[in-house]
């Protein structure tokens, strides 16, 4: 966890190109689901009894338009993959795959080709293809994004060691780690996000089916965020500790945003141009211990007010934190070991992360302790200049460390977006 995250505003995918418009699904459906999106939002967020299922009507009769939530569409093709700068989504699935025994570069290329076509179709609100289950048949795209990445081990399995990025070197050990190897790393990584749970699940099942005999699931995790429109106005999300989480996240409007988050066009290796590196951590929150603290004590751990996310030094949520301000006894108003102080970029040599996490709850332990916390996903142009220095500093004295536990970890190279007619990773696998 860091003091950075994306607000819950809904915005177009940055630098995205136009998606392909195919007619394969429309012929089978009688009416294209994408044709319904032009009137999205006209009926508000809720439809009456006559609405909802028109996208899969057997006859080409006039259809009730999708709501604004269902009609929101992210683009598959573009400079960057979707799901990086996309607004926070209500539901997420993170899943890692290992290539099957005997599968190599050719099988991996065929798999990424299948996955890319399925992702393109589903993100456009079309059926996945032959054998589509119809789980999300009466919904629109619902801001679905599907993002693909490669783990360190992928390059050895495919004979591509010479093309493995130096930035993909395994993360160092941290003293607070309690990592489960079976839920860490992997040859391939897929991130799925959407604003509708059935749409997200439908995509997860389609991706799993497409893996066929080429790859098997290594681990899978499910997460959630607050639904768009659940608050009176767009605001930074809260985590399961009740804290506003992510005030200082880099913004796409920042002049140095691209250099912090994305590999430059002339970067190395060339196939990673416009890509990014994702660090994925399952961080369990020790909520029983946390909730025993008074609100004042919780605020001193974080360094921000719980009510509105403002720094303890005063002002509003976005007011710069005054690290020099002291109280009447001469003590810093923002404690030296406060989480928000330690994670500030100006306290870490400018290191910055684009956080895009999901919360999770996986039930209760036998003693009733909740297995809940954060599926931490952060993006950066180079993890050795982003995640690693920040986590090292947190490892040395973050007040929050008593109340969290890092239980799994992964680092993945996420190439740039696929151009029209390409699949994700084509420049690596066929270059």
Strand content: 15-25%
Rg, rounded, reads 22 Å
Q: Class by helix and strand content?
A: alpha+beta
Describe the biggest sheet?
Answer: 5 strands, antiparallel
Cα shape:
globular
Spans of at least 5 consecutive residues with low confidence: 7-61
Kindly report how far apart the N and C termini lie: 37 Å
The structural domain count equals 1
Order of helices and strands: HHEHEHEHEHEHHHEEEHEH
Total helix count?
11
Instruction: List how many beta strands DSSP finds.
Output: 9
Mean pLDDT across residues: 88
Helix content: 10-25%
Keywords: Heme, Iron, Lyase, Metal-binding, Oxidoreductase, Peroxidase, Signal
Function: Involved in the recovery of exogenous heme iron. Extracts iron from heme while preserving the protoporphyrin ring intact.
Enzyme class: oxidoreductase
GO cellular component, one term: cell envelope
Question: Can you describe this structure?
Answer:
With 431 residues, the chain is an alpha+beta fold. It has one domain. Helices cover 19% and strands 17% of the residues. It contains eleven helices and nine strands. α3 runs antiparallel to α5. The longest helix has 19 residues. About 13% of the residues have low confidence.
Outline the fold blueprint.
Blueprint: H1 24-29, H2 68-71, E1 91-99, H3 105-123, E2 145-150, H4 152-157, E3 188-194, H5 197-211, E4 215-224, H6 257-261, E5 276-285, H7 287-290, H8 295-302, H9 339-342, E6 354-355, E7 358-364, E8 370-380, H10 387-395, E9 404-414, H11 426-429
Antiparallel strand pairs: 1-3, 1-4, 2-3, 5-8, 5-9, 6-8, 7-8
Helix pairs in contact: 3-5
């Amino acid at each position: 966890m860091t003091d950075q995250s994306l607000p819950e505003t809904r915005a177009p995918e940055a630098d995205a190109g136009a998606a392909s418009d195919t007619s394969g699904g429309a012929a089978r459906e009688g009416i294209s689901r994408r044709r319904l999106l032009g009137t999205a939002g006209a009926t508000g967020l809720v439809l009456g009894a006559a609405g909802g299922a028109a996208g899969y009507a057997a006859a080409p009769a006039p259809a009730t338009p999708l709501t604004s939530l269902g009609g929101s569409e992210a683009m598959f093709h573009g400079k960057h993959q979707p799901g990086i700068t996309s607004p926070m989504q209500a539901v997420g699935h993170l899943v890692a795959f290992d290539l099957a025994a005997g599968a190599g570069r050719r099988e991996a290329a065929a798999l990424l080709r299948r996955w890319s076509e399925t992702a393109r179709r589903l993100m456009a609100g079309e059926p996945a293809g032959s054998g589509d289950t119809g789980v999300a048949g009466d919904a629109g795209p619902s801001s679905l994004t599907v993002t693909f990445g490669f783990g360190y081990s992928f390059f050895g399995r495919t004979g591509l060691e010479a093309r493995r990025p130096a930035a993909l070197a395994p993360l160092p050990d941290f003293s607070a780690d309690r990592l489960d190897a079976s839920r860490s790393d992997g040859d391939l990584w897929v991130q799925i996000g959407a604003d509708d749970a059935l749409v997200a699940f439908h995509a997860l099942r389609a991706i799993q089916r497409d893996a066929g005999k080429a790859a098997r699931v290594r681990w899978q995790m499910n997460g959630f965020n607050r639904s768009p429109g659940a608050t009176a106005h767009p605001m930074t999300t809260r985590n399961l500790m009740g804290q506003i989480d992510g005030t200082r996240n880099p913004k796409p409007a920042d002049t140095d945003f691209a250099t912090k988050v994305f590999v430059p066009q002339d970067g190395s290796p060339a196939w990673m141009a416009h890509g990014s590196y994702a660090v994925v951590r399952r961080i369990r929150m020790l909520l029983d211990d946390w909730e025993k603290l008074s609100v004042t004590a919780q605020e001193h751990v974080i360094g921000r007010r719980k009510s509105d996310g403002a720094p303890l030094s005063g002002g509003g949520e976005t007011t710069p934190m005054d690290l020099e301000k002291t109280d009447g006894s001469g003590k810093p108003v923002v404690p030296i070991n406060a989480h928000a102080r330690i994670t500030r970029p100006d306290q870490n040599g400018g290191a910055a992360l684009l956080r895009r996490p999901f919360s999770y709850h996986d039930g209760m332990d036998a003693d009733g302790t909740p297995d809940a916390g954060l599926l931490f996903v952060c993006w950066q142009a180079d993890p050795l200049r982003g995640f690693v220095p920040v986590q090292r500093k947190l490892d040395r004295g973050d007040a929050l460390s008593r109340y969290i536990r890092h239980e799994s970890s992964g680092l993945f190279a996420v190439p740039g977006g696929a151009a029209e007619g390409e699949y994700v990773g084509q420049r690596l696998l066929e270059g």
